[in-house]
Amino acid sequence: MDTHMAKDAHPTTTGRTIGWAEHYDLVVQLLTLGRAKALRQLTIDQAQLRSGEAVLDVGCGTGDLTLLAKQRVGAAGRVCGIDAGPEMIEVARRKAAKRHTEIDFRVEPIEALTFPDQSFDVVLSSLMMHHLPDELKPRALAEIRRVLRPGGRVLIADFKRPTDHIGQGLLGMLMHGHVRQGAQDLPALLAEAGFTSITVDDKRSRILGFVRAVA
Questions:
Q1: CA nearest 50: which of 78, 85, 91, 14?
Q2: Is residue 134 situated within a structural domain?
Q3: Predicted local distance difference test score (pLDDT) of residue 39
Q4: Where residue 193 falls among pLDDT bands split at 50, 70, 90?
Q5: 32 within a domain of the structure (yes/no)
Q6: Beta-carbon neighbour count of residue 32 at 10 Å?
Q7: Strand, helix or coil at 107?
Q8: More confident residue, 9 or 40
Q9: pLDDT at 205
Q10: Residue 3 vs residue 73, higher pLDDT
Q11: Which of 67, 125, 196, 199 could pair with 156 in a Cys bridge, judged by C-beta atoms 3.0 to 4.6 Å apart?
């Protein structure tokens, strides 16, 4: 297990990072009206992880989804999580250590992953893509494809772009009223990055869409 004692430095990235990691889980719980755990469970169910798979969680935050992924793939599986926010990774590592769970948490930006080519069966991205500026998203998706094995899968869960006043109001309540691109806009970017079998499931949540693709 990664048990770095020295505090990691902030990597260079134009993506948005969150520095208030100690309060992040509470804020998410409040903003989702207590449904944070259910939404994470829905996301991990959508990923359809199998025992023994190698999984990377990009923009892992404080690690709750990453920990769920490890439960799904079991002792034979390998799970890693990256986030550009050192504060987030520090909290995630503490959670994993408390649960005696072996997860490789690293501080690094999605546009410059340090993993070798074809390292993973599955890449997860939960509520991270909207933090990236538009010009960075193609680079991020190219890196995801690079580290996926041929036939590997990516699952992206992100806010849907509001199409009516109700959707705009809901995102405003979640402090994300600024979102102009959403899950509906990802298939075109995934296709440009070379992914195939791209599907969008936007019926399971009022605010979230789930996008799947194959490398």
A1: 78
A2: yes
A3: 83
A4: very high
A5: yes
A6: 15
A7: strand
A8: 40
A9: 65
A10: 73
A11: 125
CATH code for the domain of 107: 3.40.50.150
Containing domain of residue 159, as a range?
21-214
Type of residue at 97: A
C-alpha distances in angstroms, 41 versus 6, 64, 71, 101, 208? 32, 10, 12, 18, 13
Query: Residue 166: is its pLDDT beyond 80?
Result: no
In a domain, 206, yes or no: yes
Distance CA 73, CA 76 (A): 7
Residue 194 structure tokens? 């070379």
**Torsion angle defined by CA atoms of residues 210, 79, 91 and 47, in that order, rounded to the nearest 10 degrees:** 10
Number of domains in the chain: 1
In a 3-state reduction of DSSP, which class is residue 209?
A: strand
Does residue 5 belong to any structural domain of this protein? no
Structural tokens at position 40 = 């994470």
Closest C-alpha among 26, 78, 33 to residue 56: 78
